[in-house]
Amino acid sequence: MRPFFSRALFSCVVALAAFSGTARAQFAGHVSSLVIDARTGAVLSESDADLQRYPASLTKMMTLYMTFQALERGNLTLRDSMPVSIHASTQAPSKLGLRPGTHLAVEQAILALVTKSANDAACVLGEYLGGGDEARFAALMTEQARRLGMAHTTFRNASGLPDPDQVTTARDLSVLARALMRDFPQYYHYFGVREFPFRRHMIPNHDPLLGVYQGADGFKTGYTDLAGHNLVSSAQQGQVRLIGVVLGASSNESRNQTMISLLDGGFSASGQDPLPLIKRSGRYYAMARRGGGGLHRSHLRRGVMLVSYRSRGAPRGLHHSWASRRGHHRS
Question: Is 57 a known active-site residue?
Answer without folding.
Answer: yes
